[in-house]
């Protein structure tokens, strides 16, 4: 039937079935935000993260000292009006260093998360959607990567190459996309059998559109949650490596290498404030990411939206 | 419910005319491999559809009935080429579409559409109704310009009985019946020639069922549609179809004009099915009820010979060995049963 014919035959709508009385319209975003803000811990986490992230971004304006300027007179000075959170064993201002360290730690965490999530989503989508031998091959690659003892591999890699932030990000991404890939694959396996995917196929939509436009948005909830939790994990791993002296090399500050510098027994016993504050930052940041991740898990659950 | 629907029954005027065939199915088979073990070796096949033949004439409604698991939905999806046919030929509008690659199916997608059973799973919860309707128009390059496309969507919305201003709503804001109307709108937006309706009303309330059936009826006239109507509810099919095919365990048992099939069912399975339809009229209640013994056999291991022989009240010796062929016993009344040889 062609267009003209269609226009002539427009009829008054047949029996509109109470359709005029739908509830108030709410966009998907406002539903998700509403659910998220009902979760108190998630909101606290979000506030903490906002403070931490903006303090890292605005470090140059917030810092009271040059983070790398040493001062022999102030070695291990306790908190005072001059050094708000004290000074370290080289007389550097702990407060200023902590702000700059936040920049580095969060940058490594975010960049590694973005790269790992991108790889994981693409591999997981392709494996889950196409199945068969493609799925078989990709999932065996995942199995192989998971079976590497990652901490030893990390130590080997960073001790052979000079550990730079970019280097760490790449290594983290390569070793940790597997979890996301598995999550995305399993979501795809169940979603691709849903009738709306069949409908998209009968409409002749291209595969790329079906995978990334139709299935992925329904699988994105768990991915965002995993990604949020992953940032925390990357910050911890970076700290672990720095603590072992294999992380980002001094004098660049990270929360991890500040903690590691403070692990000298004499420092530890006399200057409690030196290990306390970077440790506290790691703790609060990772905890906040986990709270936000939990909040997102509930807010993005499509089943909750359905009701 | 039988009452509601029988009032709406269509007249005989369009069913008996000689019309051109729009869809022809020859010996269509769809087997699913059963895999097991670490190496995923194929351990056999589920013969979901095992060689069915029928045709659909332009402008008619062909009802495909059978109990759950008889392969009727698989048949519908294979005809839509959502599944790769294992064997056999599907001819749509004079063109063999059974072996075409995805690229060549693109044109077919405009001409044959599907309405799904579950209105809750058939609409993407993350997409607005508008974007669901616009996307196929964009992909197929219809209606240049987003304004024209939006007008088309609004027109379709009002045509299926929904307020056109609901285009920016999400599926979860609608009721089941309204969602099914959205599904119908989506199938119509490309203006197809044929629609495969896979149990379009079985998930709906009885009161909504007849509304949706009436809508489908109206649309058939307005859009010049041909329907392949898959259902397990015989009273729905009776209301809706011109001709009916009865499936049992992946095979076609009987194909006939609606009135012929309901007045004079020939296959023992069809007789049993029809005797199970509840009647509202007291005088009709006295009729004999044919009860089938046993369970539906597994399609992974179907019986030899006639697949119905394990439950057939008229079973004969050669039914267990020889598979009955489909034959025209009366004009336009085909049956696959040894009783009529």
Automatic annotation (TrEMBL), chain A:
Keyword terms, alphabetized = Cell membrane, Membrane, Transmembrane, Transmembrane helix, Transport
Q: Single Gene Ontology BP term?
A: transmembrane transport
Its localization reads: Cell membrane
Q: Which InterPro entries match?
A: BP-dependent_transpt_permease (IPR050366), MetI-like (IPR000515), MetI-like_sf (IPR035906), Oligopeptide_permease_AppC (IPR053523), OppC_N (IPR025966)
The principal location of this protein is membrane
| Domain spans labelled ABC transmembrane type-1 | 102-293
User: Transport among the record's keywords?
Assistant: yes
Q: Which family does it belong to?
A: Belongs to the binding-protein-dependent transport system permease family.
Organism this protein belongs to: Geomicrobium halophilum
PANTHER family linked to this entry: D,D-DIPEPTIDE TRANSPORT SYSTEM PERMEASE PROTEIN DDPC-RELATED (PTHR43386:SF1), OLIGOPEPTIDE TRANSPORT SYSTEM PERMEASE PROTEIN APPC (PTHR43386)
State the annotated membrane topology for this chain.
Multi-pass membrane protein
One GO cellular component assignment for this chain's record is:
plasma membrane
Q: Name one Pfam family in it.
A: BPD_transp_1
Is the keyword Transcription regulation in the record? no
Q: What is this protein called?
A: Peptide/nickel transport system permease protein
Question: What stretches pass through the bilayer?
Answer: 41-63, 106-130, 137-161, 167-184, 215-236, 272-293
From TrEMBL, chain B:
- Enumerate the InterPro entries for this protein: AAA+_ATPase, ABC_transp_ATP-bind, ABC_transporter-like_ATP-bd, ABC_transporter-like_CS, Oligopep_ABC_C, P-loop_NTPase
What's in the keyword line of the UniProt record? ATP-binding, Nucleotide-binding, Transport
GO terms (molecular function) for this protein are: ATP binding; ATP hydrolysis activity
Any one GO biological process: transmembrane transport
| Keyword Membrane included in the entry's annotation | no
Annotated ABC transporter domain ranges read 23-274
Q: Which PANTHER family match?
A: D,D-DIPEPTIDE TRANSPORT ATP-BINDING PROTEIN DDPF-RELATED (PTHR43776:SF7), TRANSPORT ATP-BINDING PROTEIN (PTHR43776)
Question: Which family is it part of?
Answer: Belongs to the ABC transporter superfamily.
What name does this protein carry?
A: Peptide/nickel transport system ATP-binding protein/oligopeptide transport system ATP-binding protein
Native organism is: Geomicrobium halophilum
Upper lineage ranks? Bacteria, Bacillati, Bacillota, Bacilli, Bacillales
């Amino acid at each position: 039937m062609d267009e003209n014919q269609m226009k002539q035959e427009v009829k008054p709508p047949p029996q509109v079935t109470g359709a005029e009385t739908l509830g108030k319209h709410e966009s998907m975003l406002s539903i998700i935000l509403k659910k998220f803000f009902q979760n108190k811990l998630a909101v606290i986490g979000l506030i903490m993260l906002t403070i931490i992230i903006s303090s890292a971004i605005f470090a140059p304006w917030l810092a009271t000292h040059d983070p790398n300027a040493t001062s022999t007179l102030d070695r291990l000075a306790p908190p005072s009006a001059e050094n708000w959170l004290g000074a370290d064993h080289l007389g550097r201002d702990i407060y200023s260093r902590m702000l700059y360290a936040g920049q580095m730690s969060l940058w490594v965490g975010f960049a590694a998360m973005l790269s790992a999530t991108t790889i994981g989503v693409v591999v997981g989508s392709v494996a889950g959607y196409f199945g068969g031998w493609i799925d078989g091959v990709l999932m065996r690659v995942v199995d192989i990567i998971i079976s590497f003892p990652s901490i030893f591999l990390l130590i080997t890699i960073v001790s052979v190459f000079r550990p730079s932030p970019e280097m760490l990000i790449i290594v983290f991404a390569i070793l940790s996309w597997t979890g996301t890939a598995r999550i995305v694959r399993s979501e795809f396996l169940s979603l691709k059998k849903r009738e709306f995917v069949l409908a998209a196929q009968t409409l002749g939509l291209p595969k790329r559109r079906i995978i990334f436009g139709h299935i992925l948005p329904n699988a994105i909830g768990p991915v965002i949650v995993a990604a949020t939790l992953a940032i925390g994990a990357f910050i911890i791993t970076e700290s672990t490596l720095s603590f072992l002296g294999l992380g980002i090399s001094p004098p660049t500050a990270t929360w991890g290498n500040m903690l590691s510098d403070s692990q000298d027994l004499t420092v530890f016993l006399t200057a409690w404030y030196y290990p306390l504050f970077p440790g506290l930052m790691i703790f609060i940041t990772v905890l906040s990411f986990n709270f936000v991740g939990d909040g997102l898990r509930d807010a993005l659950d499509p089943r909750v939206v359905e009701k | 419910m039988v009452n509601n629907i029988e009032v709406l029954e269509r007249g005989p005027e369009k069913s008996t005319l000689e019309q051109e065939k729009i869809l022809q199915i020859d010996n269509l088979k769809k087997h699913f491999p059963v895999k097991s073990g670490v190496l995923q070796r194929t351990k056999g096949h589920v013969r979901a559809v095992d060689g069915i033949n029928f045709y659909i004439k332009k402008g008619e409604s062909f009802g495909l009935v059978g109990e759950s698991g008889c392969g009727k939905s698989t048949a519908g999806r294979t005809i839509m080429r959502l599944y790769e046919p294992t064997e056999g030929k599907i001819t749509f509008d004079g063109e063999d579409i059974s072996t075409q690659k995805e690229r060549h199916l693109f044109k077919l997608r405009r001409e044959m559409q599907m309405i799904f059973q579950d209105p809750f799973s058939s609409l993407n919860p993350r997409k607005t109704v508008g974007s669901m309707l616009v996307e196929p128009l964009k992909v197929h390059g219809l209606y240049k310009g987003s304004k024209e496309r939006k007008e088309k969507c609004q027109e379709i919305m009002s045509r299926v009985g929904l307020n056109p201003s609901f285009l920016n709503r999400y599926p979860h804001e609608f009721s089941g019946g309204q969602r099914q109307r959205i599904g119908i709108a989506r199938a119509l937006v490309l203006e197809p020639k044929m629609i495969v309706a896979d149990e379009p009303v079985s998930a709906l309330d009885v009161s909504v069922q007849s509304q949706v059936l009436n809508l489908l009826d109206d649309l058939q006239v307005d859009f010049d549609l041909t329907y392949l109507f898959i259902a397990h509810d015989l009273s729905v099919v009776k209301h809706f179809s011109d001709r009916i095919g009865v499936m049992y365990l992946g095979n076609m048992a009987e194909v006939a004009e609606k009135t012929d099939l309901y007045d004079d069912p020939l296959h023992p399975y069809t007789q049993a099915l029809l005797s199970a339809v509840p009647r509202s009229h007291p005088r009709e209640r006295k009729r004999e009820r044919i009860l089938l013994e046993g369970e539906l056999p597994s399609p992974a291991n179907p019986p030899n010979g006639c697949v119905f022989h394990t439950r057939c009240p008229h079973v004969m010796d050669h039914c267990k060995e020889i598979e009955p062929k489909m034959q025209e016993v009366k004009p336009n009344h085909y049956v696959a049963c040894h009783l009529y040889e």
